[in-house]
Specification:
Blueprint: H1 19-26, E1 35-39, H2 45-56, E2 59-63, H3 73-79, E3 83-87, H4 96-108, E4 113-117, E5 128-131, E6 134-136, H5 145-152, E7 157-160, E8 163-167
Parallel strand pairs: 1-2, 1-3, 3-4
Antiparallel strand pairs: 4-8, 5-6, 7-8
Helix pairs in contact: 4-5
């Protein structure tokens, strides 16, 4: 199944790190010397990669085939990672099946922790095209919990404000 909206035009943040970095830092979630796999990193993963390494000693592995960041996922599945981030990605995927597939890919990494954020848009719960080739779900963070629990298991998924934390096994 192919995404109707590629989301290419949603990759707009090229001057500062995504908010997920600060949210995870607040809870002391980064582990020095670990690998973070950043699903849906967008066009400018170097910003997150630089801050994670400089401030936390974490190596960031960007993953976004649309932008040419397509590492060997099978290898990552074998070696695992300390963390996985999915920052403002689920909200730009219209198709539920594709959101679930992304979450399944993240689960295969076997990370100790998975961190997920979504952009809530207008919070109406009514998805719509926001500009050419861009979709926005406009859902509140809480509304993604069931999809995430379906993949990871209910006991593994917790929400801390705008940050969803999934504990690995």
């Amino acid at each position: 199944m192919k995404q109707k909206y590629s989301g290419a035009n949603t990759s707009v943040n090229h001057t500062k790190p995504p908010a997920i970095v600060k949210l995870v830092t607040k809870i002391d979630g980064w582990r020095m010397g670990s690998i973070n796999v950043d699903f849906g990193c967008g066009a400018h993963p170097e910003i997150m990669s630089e801050i994670l390494y400089r401030e936390h000693g974490v190596y960031n592995m960007p993953v976004d085939p649309h932008w040419g960041f397509d590492p060997d996922i099978k290898l990552l599945n074998i070696i695992g990672a300390g963390s996985v981030t999915i920052s403002n990605v689920l909200n730009v995927i219209k198709e539920k099946k594709l959101r679930l597939n992304l979450l399944r890919q993240a689960k295969k990494i076997r990370a100790r922790l998975n961190y997920i954020t979504v952009y809530e848009g207008d919070k109406s719960g009514k998805g719509r095209e926001t500009k050419p080739d861009c979709w926005q779900e406009n859902r509140k963070t809480e509304s993604y919990m069931n999809e995430i629990k379906k993949v990871f298991g209910a006991g593994q998924v917790h929400r801390l404000g705008k940050l969803i934390i999934v504990y690995g096994k």
